[in-house]
Design goal:
heterodimer; A: alpha+beta; Ubiquitin-like (UB roll); 5-stranded mixed β-sheet; 5 strands; 24% strand; globular; B: mainly beta; Methylamine Dehydrogenase, Chain H; 4-stranded antiparallel β-sheet
Chain lengths: 85, 393
Amino acid sequence: MRVLIPSALRSYTERSEAEAGGATLAAVLADLDRQYPGIRFRMIDEQDRIRPHIRIFVNGEQVRDPSQLLRATDEVVIVQALSGG
Amino acid sequence: MARNIRKPAVRKQGSTTPARRVLVMVATRKGAWLYRGDAARKTWRAEGPHFLGHIISHLVLDPRDGRTLLAAAKTGHLGPTVFRSTDFGRTWKEAAQPPAFPKAVDGKEGRAVDHTFWLAPGHSSELNVWYAGTSPQGLFRSVDGGVTWQPFSYINDDPQYRTWMGTVQDGTPDGPKLHSIIIDPRDPAHLYFAMSGGGVHESVDGGRTFTPMVKGLEVVGGFDAANVTFHDPHCVRLCPTNPDRLYQQNHCGIYRLDRPSEEWVRIGKAMPKRTGDIGFPMVVHPRDEDTAWVFPMDGTDVWPRTSPEGTPAVYATHNGGKTWQRLDAGLPDKQAWWTVKRQAMTADASDPVGLYFGTTSGELWMSRDEGRGWACIARHLPEIYAVETALLA
């Protein structure tokens, strides 16, 4: 599926969009990490929690649970948010 | 008594040129810079920014190979990592496995590293070994030059140590920290580390066990000094030429410890009363165990943690803390409300020793003559978190 990458993570992908597959958000992020090693840990901590200043939207709805089921036609948007000055 | 007499301050002309050039590594809240000095340490060339916009807590050159740089980094949005360069920052490669706590077993609350705060190269006999201290407090080790990191020792998950560490709310405003990781140059199995909060700790068996070492240290009034939780060491340093001597800048004063004693002595009581002995950094002389420097800050009332009365000064002792000398020539004489963080003051190994500090207001200062005179190397940098030096081959 299509994954929109925020500017803070484009040092990994070198572009603003990526393709990744998986039945859940966690699986999609794991697939992204296989393609772009290290990218997942910058978004998801070692307890599998989405980091405080990262937001992930699926088809425009915010997802807080990495086990959320996804379909191949979904669009995932990763957003960097609210980290102050 | 003779050993406590200060060495002559005046040196012969020509003896002031360092044999090797100095590299100053500056870590800031918005990136990192390298400064290369000329042979006399009079002019400096800036290289950077590296990682513009990244929060760089520490930037350290490996003294064992003289070319490997490690940078502890995160951003406002992204999680923590470590970058590595073997070409003085021309290229950087991210650690394949940055410091991270183990995944908690089901039902338990696990910790996550917010940032790696302290990087320490391992013993000279253990090439590629590095240690890292994190926030919240965690101790990590790499045996491959910083490419992969693993939790080190048992303390990260030990119930007693976790009690001493306290919660995230018990630490400094940007998180409680494990810092001052020290490896005895005589013995790679002899380690120290400190925690803000959580005291100073020692291992003599390579980290298999650690023991608190807080005897003689004071705590904030009303609290029990016997409780390790209440101890807040800000910076601990070991004297390179006498590894049995340590100096410490603590939340509650300046201390010295001479092993095998386990009792710290508050040498800050000899500081002028109006200045006090509160601060963050502690710097030791590379060749003289009796000489050390501090940067006092205001610890009165609401604890401004700025230079007392807006007049910054470094204080030096040349007799192990019996007396202190104010060193402010060249520094502003009024309206300079500086804060210098615990990693943001250091020395080089030249003769005479160069001293360096960076302020949270983004100024980098240095002295070519062990503190007798000061000059500004750089202004308008972001908030400076750490300053380190290395002598280049």
